[in-house]
Amino acid sequence: MALFDLPLDELRTYRSQSTEPEDFDAFWDKTLQQAREHQLDARFEPVETGLSTVEVYDVTFAGFGGHPVKGWLRLPAGATQPLPLIVEFIGYGGGRGLPHENLLWASTGRAHFAMDTRGQGSAWGGGGGTPDPVGAAPAYPGFMTRGVDAADNYYYRRVFTDAVRAVEAARSHPLTDAARTAVTGASQGGGIALAVGGLVPDLVAVAPDVPFLCDYPRAAVLTDRHPYREIGLFLKTHRGRSADVLRTLSYFDGVHFAARGRAPALFSAALEDQTCPPSTVFAAFNAWGHEDKGIEVYDFNDHEGGGPFQEAAQVRWLRSYA
């Protein structure tokens, strides 16, 4: 697929037409307050992996509704002092994987917490272990329309709340430095990182890679690739519901979280990306609230984005922050 979205000079000034709900902050304040009524109850169980340079802990903590959410905490072997902390969120359909996977961040001398995504972990990778015990109204197969009848019911309300609690859980371990916490993720994980960047005020850095879950009004009509296409297929059946669905989605739009970002940020976008079109990524980047921000642009890449090149860019960039 050749370039299909706006030219790069227009991307750099593009602004989303997504309408922010007037009660956006109140909605999320109430949601997180309700979640914190449950004890975090973060538990860290050491795992025997056969690795000599990294120690791994099987983590369980209370997320949305007090539901148990899984994760891995990876530490450089032999660490004795609190370490800078990277909390990572996973792409659509994936799970936390196996304990020996994803060793990059621990190999840089940081603590690395990878959150499982409730109800996912069956599409690729090493799997996941966190169910989603909450029911929902009729939805197109996938996650994009689960509970889309109302913001209170929407699937990503639970996921974003889990993610904020994941930061709290990771920070509770004695070998993590809460004052040096950064979040990252690619695709869906990047969208979750944006949400956390808007909801957790004291992060030192946010690094969303080709982020998903941004600028829903444009994404839903610009690309016919899944997962955004799930929205259109739902509306193909549920005729006349477009305004209601976009109203629900506006509470979860990365553009609105980005406007509340208070940490330095490094984004990435790929100009041939049909899964997360570059204009939707730039919509969040251009809205990001902290002046210290940058974006890596990969001219001829699809949703793989920068891949290992972006990882290398993140490692270099994070040296200044965490």
UniProtKB/TrEMBL annotation:
Keyword tags: Hydrolase
Residue span, Acetyl xylan esterase domain: 1-319
E.C. number(s) listed in UniProt: 3.1.1.41
UniProt enzyme class: hydrolase
Top-level division of the source organism's lineage: Bacteria
A Pfam match: AXE1
A molecular-function term among this protein's GO annotations: cephalosporin-C deacetylase activity
The protein's name: Cephalosporin-C deacetylase
